[in-house]
Design goal:
The chain is of the alpha/beta class and 601 residues long. The chain is 44% helix and 14% strand. Strands 3-2-1-4-5-6-7-8 form an 8-stranded mixed beta sheet, with helices on both faces. It has an 8-stranded mixed beta sheet with strand order 13-12-11-14-15-16-17-18, sandwiched between helices. A two-stranded antiparallel sheet has the order 9-10. It comes from Streptomyces coeruleofuscus.
């Protein structure tokens, strides 16, 4: 009987051996068996082979319970899988997929032995995500039949498969495994041989920077993870993801990437070595960046580094009314957030007309919320009534908190803070929403730098839950406490960070985006393949080029320049392709063309 996923008679790859029956090998075996392939699972450990069979039995039993499989389907899937501790069991395989530990010595030994066992036409695939496929192929008797087939964990759920060719790989072998991946219900992406390929090549640089950020005590592990989940819509924060992947595995991948690129961004953060050598390799060990209930558990438990609820914050200042400076999308969104939370809001712009237009924009936003059933018409009307438009910052005379959301230009912001210093009453908290400029420069434009702090909202402010709270070396404790309390009242998740370029989110996000541009610039992979790889392999809500076009290439370039200027790392230099597109006026969706072209509105 054909399986629910495919008809194996249509593929020349009908019998497939999987060498290495750890978590990944077991997952691949399950995917293949469900797709009607005869699977030979091979592992040097009898216990590991038995564990693989038990896992398949449990997984297919759950499939029956959930109505995804019949009992007959389950019996046939299990009947297609046999296990062995002898590589000679792969003799009749059409394809061998090796997923042994990430070691050249181990993998080369397996390939050498397979050369004397399998048929001349058998394709041999390595599941490596860090080692050179070319180096493994060159050591084989039939290098043209060797390629990379990189599944993602958990293999049954993750749709991405990277098909990796070396300069030695025969096109027919690539075609055969690509067709197999499609037949398995996966999305194959064709890539060349370089450490990390596409998805891990972009992902691990980002994870490494997050580890270094934590090691520098710039932000807590909880705040780094929350910032990337809430600020970028990622399914997991980077430190939690390192624990899931395995700190030792991440270190191995980064070592391979650094050996090839010599990019300092790929040089493993020292904390990865420290944790690995201490045996604190993540979930599998019960402890890594976080501490877990038991080894293998995903349940985080409190440890010495877990922050106390409420922390050690000083008493804050009372905030009853809020001033928002600006008339753009961000200013309107922030004013809407405060008004919804019950605050009286003064929305001031450079003219009464601009302020009225901003309030009208808020009215339309509230109407959409009513239409979608998110709030009542009465609540929307009350919210709008709390907003008072003004054509001058003199209207901020009585506010307790003034938040600026004007142009991302330091001189413009400095002039505004000098004006707020004169207008706002003593004790008022002055906040900037800058995403890339030094908060302390705004503070120094006033006579009260202790009252100035960063409140970096994310766009669109009514929907995005994150606020980065940015203290300068001059910010008073009670000002910090005030802003933390206010964030709670407006139902935002506050994360603390210091006053340096990019804060948490942009400092981790934009180098990743820049590296994606470099991949295209170097003709390593296409826009579509990179976007697909990061959405399917990394769980990103948008691919890097989709996101760049939404953010705006000019905005992205400005942030890249700020990061490069502050950290002075050659790896952070903006990709020339980004600079060329901005110079050509191709700024993304707002101009109709960026990395892609868009229909005119």
């Amino acid at each position: 009987m054909a399986t629910p996923l495919s008809d194996p008679s249509l593929s020349p790859l009908r019998t497939i051996a999987v060498v290495g029956l750890g978590t990944m090998g077991t997952g691949i075996a399950e995917v293949l068996a469900k797709a009607g392939r005869v699977v030979v699972g091979i592992d040097i450990s009898e216990a590991q082979a038995a564990k693989c069979v038990a896992a398949l039995e449990a997984s297919t039993a759950r499939g029956v319970e959930r109505g995804r499989l019949t009992e007959q389907d389950r019996a046939e899937i299990l009947d297609r899988v046999r296990t062995s501790t002898d590589l000679r069991a792969a003799a009749d395989a059409d394809l061998v997929i090796e997923v042994a530990p990430e070691s050249y010595e181990i993998k080369q030994q397996i390939f050498r032995e397979l050369d004397g066992i399998v048929r001349p036409e058998t394709i041999m695939a390595t599941g490596t995500n860090a080692l050179s496929v070319t180096r493994l192929a060159a050591d084989s008797a039939r290098p043209e039949r060797v390629l990379g087939l990189h599944f993602f964990n958990p293999a049954p759920a993750m749709r991405l498969v990277e098909v990796v060719s070396s300069v030695l790989t025969a096109p027919a072998a690539v075609t055969a495994v690509t067709d197999l991946a499609l037949d398995l219900g996966k999305e194959p992406v064709a890539v060349g041989d370089r450490p990390g390929f596409v998805a891990d090549g972009l992902l691990f640089g980002y994870l490494n920077q997050a580890a270094a950020m934590y090691e520098a005590k710039y932000a807590s592990r909880e705040d780094i993870d929350a910032a990337m989940r809430l600020g970028c819509g990622l399914p997991m924060g980077p430190l939690a993801l390192l624990d899931l992947i395995g700190v030792d595995t991440a270190r191995t991948v980064l070592e391979a990437m650094y050996a090839a690129s010599r990019d300092r961004l790929h040089a493993p953060a020292p904390i990865l070595k420290q944790l690995s050598e201490a045996g604190l390799t993540g979930r599998k060990a019960g402890r890594g960046f976080y501490t877990y209930e038991t080894p293998g558990s995903g349940t985080v438990v409190r440890d010495a580094l877990t922050p106390l609820e409420g922390g050690d914050l000083a008493p804050g200042r009372e905030v009853r009314s809020v001033g928002v400076a600006g008339s753009g999308t961000m200013a309107s969104g922030i004013a809407e957030v405060f008004a919804k939370a019950g605050y009286g809001v003064v929305l001031a712009a450079r003219s009464e007309e601009k302020a009225q237009a901003a309030k009208a924009r808020i009215g339309k936003s509230l109407s959409r919320s009513v239409d979608k059933g998110r709030m009542t018409a009465e609540a929307a009307a009350q919210t709008l009534d709390r907003i008072t438009p003004a054509g001058s910052y003199d209207a901020f005379a009585d506010v307790d908190l003034a938040v600026e959301a004007v142009a991302e230009d330091l001189e413009v912001k400095r002039q505004l803070f000098a004006a707020l210093d004169k207008v706002c009453k003593p004790g008022a908290v002055l906040a900037t929403t800058t995403s890339s400029l030094p908060v302390v420069a705004c503070a120094r434009a006033t006579s009260r730098p202790q009252d100035v702090i960063g409140m970096h909202f994310f766009n669109p402010a009514p929907a995005m839950k994150l606020v980065e709270v940015v203290r300068t070396v001059l910010t008073a404790d009670d000002v910090h406490a005030t802003v933390r309390e206010v964030c709670g009242r407006i139902r935002k998740h506050a994360v603390d960070c210091g006053d340096r370029a990019g804060f948490i989110v942009n400092a981790l996000l934009f180098p990743y985006l820049n590296n994606a541009i470099k991949m295209v610039q170097e003709h390593y992979a296409s826009l579509d393949d990179i976007d697909a790889a990061m959405k399917l392999g990394g769980g990103y809500p948008m691919g890097p080029f989709e996101l760049l076009d939404v953010v705006g290439l000019d905005v992205s370039l400005a942030i890249e320049k700020v990061l490069h200027r502050e950290f002075r790392d050659p790896g952070l230099a903006p990709a020339p392709l980004l600079e060329h597109l901005v110079a050509a006026g191709c700024l993304g969706r707002k101009t109709g063309r960026g990395f892609r072209e868009y229909a005119k509105r």
